Amino acid sequence: MSLRYDPEWFALAGPKLETQSEVLPIHDIATRRSRYAQLFVRSTYAPPADINIDTFKTPASDGHEVVVYRVSKKTETETAYSSRTPAVLHIHGGGFISVHAKDVLPSLVPYVRESGIPIFSVDYRWAPENPFPTPVEDCWSGLLFLHSRSEELGIDVSRIAVMGESAGGGLAAGLALLARDRNLSPALAKQILIYPMLDDRTITDRSGGLAVFSINDVITGWAAYIGEAMGTDNVSPIAAPARVGHVAGLPSLYLDVGQLDLFLGEDVAYARKFLEAHIQTELHVYPGVIHAFQRWAPTSQVVKQVFVNRLRAITTIEAPEG
Questions:
Q1: Proportion of the chain in helix, strand, coil states, percent, rounded to 5
Q2: Does any domain span residue 321?
Q3: CB 162 within 8 A of CB 121
Q4: Distance between CA 306 and CA 195 in Å, rounded?
Q5: What is the spatial distance between Cα 216 and Cα 185, in angstroms, rounded to a whole number?
């Protein structure tokens, strides 16, 4: 039997996606930025009454000030901490070339409200103006910020997870590799990777014509991020984590992806490396849905289920053994 869309999800998402189905030419970054900007409500977002959004700045290695947003429950920031909590360092998607951290803060609120765990989101610099390694180094600066300010922030540095979607998932995976290779202590506790963009060699589109993120977008993003090295043997695993030779020493992994997502193959292959290395791994493949599927049908059962699974991944952050 051939692959098909999840019927309930498609009934809700199909009409919306038809207006987003135009495939843009490769390397047309300006139009992509304009299109992505239209998907988000900018500047006017007011958080719910029980949620705080705070803004911090921390220096990158080159002197640039990296903005880090904190989304937290008001009870966490207005009362003294009786014990330190886990924390999530979030890295947003956008094909390495677009979207601001503040644009995705509303999507983080339900996880914070239900878990009580603060999420910090890094506003990293975009490619191609700032190619690899600048975006992942900005994320590293965000991680060091959590470590250096942990007492003030009330977080347990042994229970920090990195989380990201799409290109942000790739950056989160790259950050986990960077933290391992730089001997971050305490080590990261978990990776929560949401349909991550991991492999610059991806050339197959599985979306069945309803792509809001096409293979042209993939090529454009990777070319902006790693330039002429794309597809060669000269690509660092920090940039394209699918290329990593071994995963020993990396934190536990949660990964989810739609079966019609163009990143399915690379994501499942990446999770398999963790399974074979006997690293705690939770992998979900959702039949009948494409990349970024939750945006287009938030009331569908598959989206409700993915929220439950991601929430559980957040609420079960534990310090690594050893």
A1: 40, 20, 40
A2: no
A3: no
A4: 12
A5: 39
Q: Which region among 36-45, 160-169, 188-197 has the lowest average model confidence (pLDDT)?
A: 36-45
- Which residues are CB-contacts of 293 (< 8 A; sequence separation ≥ 6)? 9, 13, 258, 261, 286, 302, 303
Q: Say how far apart CA 253 and CA 283 lie, in whole Å.
A: 8
Rounded CA separation 71/109 (Å): 7
> Is residue 80 over pLDDT 50?
no
Cβ atoms within 10 A of the Cβ of 47, count?
15
Q: How many domains in the chain?
A: 1
The DSSP 8-state label assigned to residue 186 in this structure reads S
**16: containing domain:** 7-315
Element at 224 (helix H, strand E): helix 215-226
Taking the whole predicted model, whether its pTM rises above 0.90 is answered as yes
Residue 190 lies in a domain: yes
Determine contact, residues 318/159, Cβ cutoff 8 Å.
yes
Ramachandran sector of residue 60 (left: φ over 0; alpha: ψ -120 to 50; beta: rest): beta
Residue for token pair 């290109």: 167
β pairing state of 252-258 and 281-286: parallel
Q: Rounded to whole angstroms, how far apart are CA atoms 285 and 59? A: 38
* Domain assignment present for 2: no
The pLDDT tens digits of the residues spanning 187-229 come to 999 999 999 999 999 876 665 556 678 899 999 999 999 999 9
Show the beta-strand stretches assigned E in the chain: 51-59, 65-73, 85-91, 119-123, 155-165, 190-194, 252-258, 281-286
For residue 83, count other CB atoms closer than 10 A to its CB.
6
Which ranges of 82-193 does DSSP label H, i.e. alpha helix? 101-115, 134-148, 150-153, 167-181
Domain with 298 in it: what CATH number? 3.40.50.1820
What DSSP string runs through 272-303? HHHHHTT--EEEEEETT--TTGGGT-TTSHHH
Task: Count the residues in the chain.
Answer: 322
Residue 322 included in any domain: no
